[in-house]
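To make the argument concrete, we let one protein speak, a sequence paired with a row of structure tokens, as a model reads it:
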Amino acid sequence: MAQWEYKHIRLDYKGRGITQEINLLDIDGERIRGWGGEQEVPTLPEMFEALGKDGWEMVSHVVNQDNSSNGTTFHYYNFKRSFSL
């Protein structure tokens, strides 16, 4: 029987998100300062490509725009992948 593990990602784009560069990135509740060591935080396509290669499948995407207090728009992505015990 397949078991599932989950990955939760919250991000905010730089500027209006046209270049898909990420300003803030939290993965499983931990703030990511760099990706793969000293590198910059990836763009969204780079991150999705890495997740796909590791077997992660996106199961949901939700946008929460908070213009009233700070103007931040967070995107919440949830991924799952199967593993065997």
